[in-house]
Amino acid sequence: MLDPVFSLTLALLLTTLLWHAAVGKLGARAEFRAVLDAYDLLPPALNAVLSLLLPVGEGLSGLALLFSRTRPLGGLAAGALFAVYGLAMAVNLARGRRDLDCGCAGPGERRPITGYMVWRNAGLSLAGLALAAGTAPRLLTPGDGATVLGAVLGFALLYLTLDRLYTHPAAGHGVDH
User: Fold this and answer.
1) How far is CA 123 from CA 33, 85, 108, 117, 142, in A?
2) In angstroms, rounded to a whole number, what is the distance separating the alpha carbons of residues 132 and 72?
3) Where are the alpha helices (DSSP H) in the chain?
4) Shortest CA distance to 68 belongs to which of 19, 13, 122, 12?
5) How far is 78 from 58, CA to CA, in rounded Å?
6) pLDDT higher than threshold 70 for residue 165
7) Angle, alpha carbons 145-78-151 (nearest 5°)
8) Please, are residues 79 and 10 in contact by the beta-carbon 8 Å criterion?
9) How many C-beta atoms lie closer than 10 Å to residue 128's C-beta?
10) Confidence class of residue 5 from pLDDT cuts 50, 70 and 90?
């Protein structure tokens, strides 16, 4: 079981990522379906359904993470989503298809898949699965609130920095880790 500060910090970070991704994908469903089709993993008819179900699942997973009672289920769902996304990228990288749009935040933010994204999704999956273990029973104090706020801001800045460095070719000079 996780300490409530760590649990809440992870939940807020993953919810932010999931909701950002869900909004981008729902706002451009046809383009997101094209991204799914380009991955060439499932039949096109199934991709049509998944172009709605995946972002709805992201949104619901993020919502579940916000409440202590549903956080384990939300963590399990988020962990599964990130693992599936990472696996889809890994399969296509192994096929030599590095030009595919990752589809991470919706088609409006086109970024070619990289090895970094596979590792990033593995880490995000583990974070979700850690939340599935539950939260230790302890009341949060005002100091805990400040800790959560600082941790969320710090980790968000770190995530955005790494994302910019490793997923935007011009900024990362094509680095593929």
Assistant:
1) 25, 12, 24, 10, 29
2) 4
3) 4-26, 29-39, 44-65, 71-94, 115-132, 142-167, 169-172
4) 12
5) 7
6) yes
7) 25
8) no
9) 25
10) very high
DSSP annotation of 173: T
Token representation of residue 46: 């199934």
Task: Tell me the per-residue pLDDT of 56-108, one tens digit each, with 9 for 90 and over.
Answer: 999 999 999 999 999 999 999 999 999 999 999 999 999 999 989 888 866 56
Residue listed under structure tokens 């104090």: 141
124 with 82: CB under 8 angstroms?
Answer: yes
In contact, 112 and 98? CB cutoff 8 Å: yes
Q: What amino acid occupies position 90? A: A
Single-letter residue type at 51: S
CB 15, CB 66: distance < 8 Å: yes
Cα(98)–Cα(125) distance, integer angstroms:
22
